[in-house]
Design a protein that fits this description.
This protein is of the alpha/beta class. Helix content is 42%, strand content 26%. The strands form three sheets. Strands 1, 2, 3, 4, 5 and 11 form a six-stranded mixed beta sheet that branches. It has a five-stranded mixed beta sheet with strand order 8-7-9-6-10. It is globular, with a radius of gyration of 24 Å. It starts with 7 loop residues before the first helix and ends in a 12-residue tail after the last strand. Its main location: cytoplasm.
């Protein structure tokens, strides 16, 4: 006798039950990851173990293929996400141990650009959710207001975008770092998923005005260049752009922003994937009034700014110092020095712990050959590179 086919409701109920089981298992795995971090405190082992991660992924790929008919790409995508979460969770735990004050602050005042739904707001929520910290959100109308709010003590932290994979460095933020008294204490990379948001369905050819922050306008320039008869209007943030479009309530006025954020303002996604690059990410930095210690079990970055003499080879001389101490430069950026025409300040992200012998020796040498040098901060590196495995 043939089995009675399951109804759609029965199938959905089974899927819901499986999803609940997956959530339970993910929670259990997270708890075990914390136990791993606790054991590493005793052994002083680093958070990441590349050999073990490779062995784990190869085993999972083989088992998935042989036992469950799951393809390798699917398995690696899922477990890359799980491994990344585990690494960040363990790093946050170890950071709390070397900074006991962080454990006593389950509530943080955080300043960021724009209102709810801006990319800076989403980054703030993402960063502090990993640290089980509740937020008092302080919306700011400019990057300068973010730094001033933290410097004055009205906020504990500020979240600032520093560079984007499509539009490059955010110069206004680099210029602010020349003069701020704040320290960089953290970073995160946030995926940026730009789309056109409107109060109602609209044809692209009927759009007349597009509101957004200048950065999304730049990051979506290829798509926007193909639209005819449109005007770009600048707003303080993507959230302000969404609010403006909601208030106008016109089908020919749209905003560029995140689709989920658009729902906060009653807007719908009328065109997705409009960024110049498919893989569009923005790196954010977290600033505070005091520097934090960084566990030596965690990969770290140290950011400094310096100015050199105007003599030929001055910058090269500083780079050779870092080479001799085997310190990798992750990023080198130059910006004009305000009030000093034709002179530049150099920003460097170095892959090193500030307290390491190599970093201290290098900085002591750099001080003697530069006109000005300041360390902006040492902080955990949250650019979690995927474990490399050969997919069968």
């Amino acid at each position: 006798m043939a089995e009675t086919p399951l109804s759609l409701d029965d199938i959905r109920n089974r899927l819901n039950a499986l999803d609940d089981k997956l959530l339970s298992l993910l929670s259990e795995r997270r708890n075990l990851s914390l136990e791993v971090a606790k054991s590493k405190v005793e052994t002083s082992k680093p958070v990441r173990d590349a050999d073990r991660e490779q062995q784990l992924l190869v085993k999972l790929i083989n088992n998935g293929k042989e036992k469950y008919q799951l393809d390798a790409e699917y398995i690696t995508k899922v477990f890359y996400t799980i491994i990344e979460d585990s690494v960040l969770l363990q790093q946050a735990y170890l950071q709390n141990l070397v900074n006991p004050a962080l454990q006593r602050k389950p509530l943080a005042r955080v300043a960021f650009l724009g209102a709810k739904g801006s990319y800076s707001h989403l980054a703030s929520q993402d960063y502090f959710s990993r640290r089980n910290t509740d937020l008092i959100e302080l919306n700011c109308e400019s990057f300068k207001e973010v730094t001033k709010t933290v410097e004055s003590g009205h906020a504990d932290y500020g979240v600032l975008p520093i560079e984007n994979t499509s539009s490059g460095s955010i110069n206004e933020v680099y210029d602010l770092l020349q003069h701020t008294t704040l320290y960089i204490v953290g970073e995160l990379s946030q995926p940026i998923e730009h789309c056109l948001l409107s109060p109602e369905e609209v044809r692209l050819e009927d759009i007349k005005t597009i509101y957004s922050h200048p950065q999304p306008h730049q990051q979506c320039s290829d798509f926007l260049g193909r639209l005819k008869g449109t005007t770009l209007e600048t707003c303080a943030s993507t959230a302000d752009a969404m609010l403006k479009v909601k208030e106008l309530n016109r089908p020919d006025a749209v905003a560029i922003g995140n689709a989920l954020s658009g729902k906060l303002y009653g807007l719908q996604n009328v065109q997705g994937n409009i960024a110049n690059q498919t893989e569009n990410h923005t790196r954010f930095i977290v600033v505070a009034r005091k520097a934090f210690s960084v566990s030596d079990q965690i990969p770290a970055k140290t950011t400094l700014i310096m100015s050199t003499s105007q003599e030929a080879g001055s910058l090269v001389e500083t780079l050779l110092v870092l080479q001799r101490h085997n310190i990798n430069i992750k990023k080198l950026e130059s910006r004009p020095i305000m009030g000093n025409p034709w002179e530049e300040m150099f920003y460097m992200d170095l892959e090193t712990h500030l307290d390491s012998h190599a970093a201290q020796s290098a900085i002591n040498e750099l001080v003697t050959i530069t006109r000005y040098l300041k360390v902006l901060g040492c902080y955990p590196s949250e650019n979690i590179k995927p474990t490399q495995v050969k997919v069968p």
